[in-house]
Design brief:
Order of helices and strands: HEEHEEEEEHHHH
CATH topology of one domain: N-terminal domain of TfIIb
Number of helices: 6
Structural class: alpha+beta
Shape: globular
Oligomer: single chain
Bound molecules: zinc ion
CATH class of one domain: Mainly Beta
Strand order of the largest sheet: 1-2-3-4-5
């Protein structure tokens, strides 16, 4: 099974990402200065790579940055040192949870746009967005969510949430057991999860894309 094709049960609950393609995000202990909601802590590597070059010198080297995942809030990154923030206009790409434009990415690693899923929905009434992502992965290829996804972690939950907003469940079927390609590279044949071992029967895991 490839982790980039979570079943419904896989997608729902767990915030613990067992693969190493994300930062192992934790809920921030300080709130976004604008919407007052606790965001998600990101590594410095994330804003260093997702911000426009022109604004990267505003990054504070010793600060811890947090991603605000409130859809209606324009703040993307805030920090624990001062009140400066980076907004959606400061990022190279639109942010999945904050922008409804069709050219917003659902998967940053493999450049899958909301438009592609919307086209699927218009044509067939469902979408196979996770299979689309999987199809773009070369065998053994890893994700690099930490560098390209503004939230610095797997896009699986964002995709599931977005699909729910479209009032549709992903049409993806359970991934093939024989697949050896996961976002974290080859897995033992017996392993069925993102980084091996997690099964649908186990506590649900988030995927890797
Ligand atoms: Zn906010």
């Amino acid at each position: 099974m490839s982790s980039c094709s979570p079943t419904d049960s896989v997608a729902k609950a767990d915030t613990q990402d067992t693969c190493d393609c994300g930062t192992g995000q934790a809920r921030s202990d300080i709130a976004c200065p604008v919407c007052r909601t606790l965001g998600m802590t990101v590594g410095h590597i994330t804003p260093e790579n997702t911000l426009r070059r022109q604004v990267r010198d505003r990054l504070l080297p010793d600060a811890t940055y947090h991603f605000c995942d409130t859809p209606s809030c324009d703040v993307v990154y805030y920090n624990d040192r001062d009140s400066s923030v980076f907004g959606t206009q400061d990022l190279v790409h639109k942010v999945t949870v904050k922008d409804d434009a069709p050219d917003t990415r659902l998967c940053y690693c493999f450049k899958v746009l909301k438009q592609q899923a919307l086209d699927d929905l218009a044509r067939t009434g469902t979408t196979h967005v996770f299979q689309t992502i999987q199809a773009k992965m070369k065998p053994g290829q890893s994700c690099f969510c930490e560098k390209v996804n503004p939230r610095g972690d797997t896009c699986t939950k964002d995709i599931q949430d977005w699909l729910a907003q479209q009032d549709v469940a992903s049409g993806d079927s359970a991934p093939a057991q024989e697949s050896e390609s996961t976002c974290c590279g080859p897995v033992p044949a017996a392993a069925t999860g993102c980084c091996g071992g997690d099964t649908v029967q186990d506590a649900p895991k988030t995927g890797c894309c």
